[in-house]
Each structure stands twice: as structure tokens, then as C-alpha cells.
Amino acid sequence: MRAGLMRVLLIHGWGFDRRFWEPVAARLRYETCVPDVGFSDGAARGVLPDEFVVAVGHSLGLLWLLAHGVLPASALILGINGFTRFARAADFPDGVAPRILERMEAGLGRDAGAVVRQFHVNCGLSGGPDETAGLPVPESLRRGLHLLRHGDARALRDRVAGVLASRDDAIVPPALTEACFSADRISWSRSGGHLLPLTEPDLCVRFICDAMERHRHAV
């Protein structure tokens, strides 16, 4: 396939907006489509394209893609800091404790902005509030937390061709990643934390392009 015929769909995770992908989108030599999931108001929502070659979900973005069944059978699906299930369950002991998500949901009713800001800090972001960001949308954030709490796409794990993960991810620890994907599907970064598209955009671009190249030779 020629580069001009390829379209890359990029889906952000919980508490972020489409601007999260700007460092990666600026470096990709392919056409990109970057919709907004709607966690803040005033964001340009965008629509999913009718056709695309590869879909990349960051964090919750990967589970969102799998859970919503929006992907054509021919799509190459990739994850960055992603997972097929997030919350702990009886048959998923490596998940995150549900009480953490329950506390976040309770906090949305008091001060949604504070919950999002604290999550950003937990992810490794520093600095003051983003003055260009829209106001948080509690109902949309609550739906995202519900998906994090109850979403389970483990049955679709083989649809994910590869996932880029970080050994020092404080949100999605290595054990959770390894519980979601087979070892041959995981590419590890020693550092970079939970926000690899921001901290290691060149690495993310190489990961996406290498996967696309392998896919091109396989079809």
C-alpha cells in the first residue's frame, strides 16, 4: 500500500482530548483521523472514518475501540499503554482495585476538574491547569469510568496485533499488561510512564510504522 492510501485512527484515553495525540500525529507520514471522545466540552468531536488501515488506542482508548465494535474486520488494531480489561475481578487478579475507580466516580459529583487534574498528576503530567482545555463533562467521564470498571474485551485480545507498554507505567503496571496480552504481542519501553505518546512520540511512531509494515507484507 502507498502511504497516501493509509489512514491511521488515533483514540485518546480517559480524561484527555484529541490534542493528546498531536506529537504523534505530527510525526506520522500517513493521514491521521483523531476524533474526540468527549471528556471535555467544546472539543471538536469528529467522526470515525469509513475506512482506515490501522486503529491505535491509548489506555482506555484501546478498550473503547474493542468494546464499541466500530472496527472493520480488516483493521490493524494497536494499543499504547492499553489493555483489554482494567479492573480487578475474580478471574483477573492483576487488575486495578475497583475502589479506586469508585472513589474517582464519587469525586466527579463534587469537583470533576479536580479528579481529572489528579489523574493527570498520577499519570506523570506536571505543571498547572491547561487553560486551553474545555470544562470536564462529568457524565462522559462517568461513562468512561464505568467502562474501566466493567469493560472486558479479553475475548478479543487476538484482534490486537501489538501493544507498546512501559515498564514504569504507574497506571497500567506490567503485570496488568501481561495479563491482557501474550508476550509476543508486547513491545516494552524501559521508561516513559503511562503517557508514551507524549513522553516518547518517536518511539510510538516507530511502533506504529513497524506494525503497519509487517501488516503490509502479511496481506
TrEMBL record:
UniProt superkingdom: Bacteria
Segments forming domain AB hydrolase-1: 8-206
Keyword tags: Hydrolase
Pfam entry (one): Abhydrolase_6
InterPro entries according to UniProt: AB_hydrolase_1, AB_hydrolase_fold
GO molecular function annotations of the record: hydrolase activity
Listed name of the protein: Alpha/beta hydrolase
Origin species: Acetobacter oeni
